[in-house]
């Protein structure tokens, strides 16, 4: 009895597999081929100059607001090197810090604030696409991943290096101008200034990107 | 596709696009010159309008309102003008109508009242009603200053669906051109030249066109019209120099983009007919479409044929995918199925080839049946749609639709216009509609026959294709035969990006679809 049941099951599975294969074959016979839209990339980058504004939102005692300038060289549509970026920030103290000072008279001198930082990253741009805007316009954009190194200057602990990872997106306005939004996370290594633990600096920044070359 | 078919299609398409601007004349348009006696109390112009609109259709002439001699206060005209310039055309129109009804045509403000009445009606979106009054000004010519303005307004109205007989033929086609300012005279010369061309009098047309200011828009349009006419006449021997002339026109910035595209399409079609397929493809690529414009189905189909002739079957099939887009679903393109079947056959996919061929007879079975049964073809929805989508039939349909729409709109003004004006305008629109229906039906009967003929030819070719594919399908393959790939697919370039098509059409992709399919041809049967 058990033997009969297993045979029936095997037969059913085989029949299903065969019918699936036959269906696929029929589909292939009736509608052979694949259609794709092959388009020239309307926007291609080469020398990119970025003007940034950004924030360092992670610290509870202050929000760093900074401006940054960077240069990126695009080797291809997939890879680029953010050759250099340099930012200078101002710390806007949070209500928490004010409350500590007013209510408890605490002077948080140990609070390390980022003064400025420089760095370099490699960019990988695996996603490129377009969006229909209310069915009236098409905008193009891409998504990239970043990995690199940053050297921070802190108010207390001085210069400390960090490893930077993150990602971002870009919306093209035209062949020369695009907008870029990046979100990165820096793991700052405890060297110098008497620090003993890793710290984290997150950056959220927005750029006006100017492109030279690439579309010619 | 046979050369003869292409040639016929070429001349038809070109002739539709240009010559039809001065459209085929309905039976016998009444000129309307014999208007009411100048000094007689005005009859509301109904007699004139009747003459202008009931162009030999057999429509019963509408009796005008009984002349009711009534003293008109000259201030009525000033009041009406105040209303008009204060942005109240709704209030101005009935006053101006009353004024034009009550004063003789010798009154110094009579023509102005007609003009502002026309402007008021146009601002109320009763374009045809406005055109009727402007045409009256042009015919009566009681005031030269108003005449020029009326002609300028009429010229603007020709950009919309309009009564071609009343405006193009009876006004611009019949104007005495001696006294007109240069711009209006240019347009009138152009229209009169077109009328001459249409009746086959090229010499007279040349005389009119030679008076057009050099470098003007009309001069360019006239060149195009002349070229198309010559092309129509040279059906067998295509003059090669015409390609250059069309090419020059396609670069003429004074022409509209549509006209330049038409000229470039003419270049492409001529090159195709001469067997210069790379040149034809180059011309097709030079047709510029506005951003995100879906373009024209004929353009894609012709480009697909050109690419097929060049052996670019994958790109040709991509263009056929474009023609399946919702925008083009209602297009009448029987050739499309034939070309698809040819491409599948060339790639030795015989079942899909057979299926594509059958698709034509399946999709158009009702229309083919109607042709075979000798039914009234204008009742067949597919043929009707196809016939009314092109050339002069299309314009007649558009005019009829606009008149019907405006007639509906007129109902909103029943209260404002008053009984007399409303009744008069209703009769004007009823007559124009009746005439519009007659002209449309006349043109439809002719063009539906052309479309039916096209369908029959395609169906015949498809039957041949089915037979050929049927033979191939059961052809024996020798042992040891190898697959051959004679039709290589173009590789993706570094600056290109590929979006796989998933039944979602994007307007920006319509010209860029490419089909990928391996050839299944074996050595013996490979083309």
In a nutshell, what does this entry contain?
The complex is a heterodimer of chains A (216) and B (527). Helix content of chain A is 18%, strand content 57%. Chain A contains two helices and nine strands.
Question: What's the SSE blueprint?
Answer:
The complex is a heterodimer of chains A (216) and B (527).
Chain A: H1 2-30, E1 34-40, E2 47-56, E3 62-74, E4 79-93, H2 95-104, E5 114-133, E6 137-154, E7 158-172, E8 177-188, E9 199-212
Chain B: H1 3-17, H2 46-53, H3 75-85, H4 89-102, H5 110-123, H6 127-140, H7 144-157, H8 164-169, H9 182-198, H10 202-210, H11 217-233, H12 241-250, H13 257-273, H14 277-285, H15 297-309, H16 313-322, H17 334-346, H18 350-363, H19 365-372, H20 381-387, H21 391-410, H22 414-473, E1 496-500, E2 513-516
Helix pairs in contact in B: 1-11, 1-13, 2-6, 2-22, 3-4, 4-5, 4-22, 5-6, 5-7, 6-7, 9-10, 9-11, 10-11, 11-12, 12-13, 13-14, 14-15, 15-16, 15-17, 16-17, 17-18, 17-22, 18-22, 20-22, 21-22
Task: Describe the protein in words.
The complex is a heterodimer of chains A (216) and B (527). Chain A has 216 residues and is α+β, with helices and mostly antiparallel strands. Helices cover 18% and strands 57% of the residues of chain A. Chain A has 2 helices and 9 strands. Among the domains of chain B are: 30-169, no CATH class; 289-331 and 479-527, no CATH class; 340-475, no CATH class. Residues 1-63 of chain B have low confidence and may be disordered. β1 of chain A pairs antiparallel with β1 of chain B, so a sheet runs across the interface.
């Amino acid at each position: 009895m058990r033997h009969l049941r297993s045979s029936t099951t095997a037969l059913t599975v085989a029949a299903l597999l065969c019918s699936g294969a036959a269906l696929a074959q029929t589909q292939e016979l009736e509608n052979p081929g694949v259609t794709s839209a092959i388009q020239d990339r309307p926007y291609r980058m080469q020398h990119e100059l970025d003007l940034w504004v950004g924030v360092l939102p992670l610290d509870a005692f202050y929000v760093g607001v900074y401006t940054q300038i960077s240069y990126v060289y695009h080797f291809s549509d997939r890879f680029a090197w953010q050759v250099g970026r340099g930012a200078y920030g101002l710390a806007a103290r949070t209500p928490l810090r004010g409350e500590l000072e007013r209510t408890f008279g605490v002077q948080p001198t140990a609070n390390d604030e980022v003064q400025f930082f420089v760095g370099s990253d490699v960019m990988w741009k695996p996603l490129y696409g377009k969006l229909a805007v209310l069915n009236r316009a098409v905008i193009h954009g891409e998504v990239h991943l970043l990995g690199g190194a940053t050297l921070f200057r802190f108010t207390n602990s001085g210069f400390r290096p960090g490893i930077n990872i993150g990602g971002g997106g870009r919306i093209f306005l035209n062949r020369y101008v695009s907008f870029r939004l990046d979100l990165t996370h820096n793991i700052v290594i405890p060297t110098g200034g008497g620090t003993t633990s890793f710290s984290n600096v997150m950056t959220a920044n927005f750029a006006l990107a100017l492109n030279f070359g690439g579309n010619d | 596709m046979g050369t003869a078919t292409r040639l016929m299609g070429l001349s038809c398409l070109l002739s539709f696009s240009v010559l039809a601007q001065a459209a085929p004349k309905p039976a016998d348009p009444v000129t309307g010159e014999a208007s009411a006696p100048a000094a007689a109390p005005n009859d509301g112009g109904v007699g004139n309008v009747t003459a202008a609109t009931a162009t030999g259709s057999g429509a019963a002439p509408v009796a005008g309102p009984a002349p009711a001699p009534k003293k008109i206060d000259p201030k009525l005209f000033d009041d009406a003008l105040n209303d008009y310039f204060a942005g109240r055309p709704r209030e101005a129109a009935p006053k101006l109508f009353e004024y034009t009804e009550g004063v003789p045509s010798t009154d110094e403000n009579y023509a102005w009242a007609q003009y502002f009445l026309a402007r008021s009606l146009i601002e109320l979106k009763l374009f045809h009603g406005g055109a009727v009054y402007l045409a009256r000004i042009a015919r009566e010519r009681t005031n030269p200053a108003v005449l020029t303005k009326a002609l300028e307004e009429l010229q603007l109205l020709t950009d919309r669906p309009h009564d071609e007989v009343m405006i193009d033929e009876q006004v611009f086609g019949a104007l005495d051109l001696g006294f007109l300012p240069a711009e209006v005279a240019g347009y009138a010369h152009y229209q009169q030249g077109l009328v001459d061309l249409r009746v086959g009098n090229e010499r007279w047309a040349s005389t009119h066109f030679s008076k057009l200011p050099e470098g003007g828009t009309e001069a360019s349009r006239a060149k195009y019209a002349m070229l198309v006419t010559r092309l129509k006449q040279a059906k067998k021997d295509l003059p090669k120099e015409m390609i250059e002339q069309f090419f020059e026109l396609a670069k003429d910035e004074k022409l509209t983009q549509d006209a330049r595209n038409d000229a470039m399409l003419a270049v492409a079609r001529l090159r195709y007919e001469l067997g210069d397929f790379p040149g034809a493809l180059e011309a097709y690529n030079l047709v510029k479409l506005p951003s995100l414009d879906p373009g024209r189905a004929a353009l894609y189909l012709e480009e697909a044929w050109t690419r097929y002739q060049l052996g670019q079957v994958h790109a040709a099939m991509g263009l056929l995918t474009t023609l399946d887009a919702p925008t083009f679903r209602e297009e009448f393109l029987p050739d499309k199925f034939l070309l698809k079947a040819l491409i599948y056959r060339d790639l030795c996919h015989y079942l899909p080839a057979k299926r594509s061929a059958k698709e034509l007879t399946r999709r158009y079975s009702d229309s083919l049946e109607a042709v075979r049964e000798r039914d009234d073809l204008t009742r067949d929805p597919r043929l009707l749609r196809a016939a009314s989508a092109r050339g002069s039939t299309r314009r007649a349909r558009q005019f009829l639709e606009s008149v019907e729409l405006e007639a509906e709109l007129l109902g909103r003004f029943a209260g404002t216009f008053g009984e007399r004006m409303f009744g008069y305008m209703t009769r004007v629109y009823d007559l124009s509609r009746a005439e519009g229906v007659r002209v449309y039906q006349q043109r439809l009967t002719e063009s539906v026959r052309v479309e039916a003929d096209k369908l029959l030819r395609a169906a015949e070719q498809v039957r041949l294709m089915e037979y050929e594919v049927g033979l191939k399908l059961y052809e024996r393959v020798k042992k040891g035969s190898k697959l051959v790939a004679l039709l290589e697919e173009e590789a993706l370039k570094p600056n290109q990006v590929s979006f796989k098509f998933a039944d979602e059409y994007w307007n920006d992709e319509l010209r860029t679809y490419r089909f990928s399919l391996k050839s299944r041809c074996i050595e013996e049967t490979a083309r």
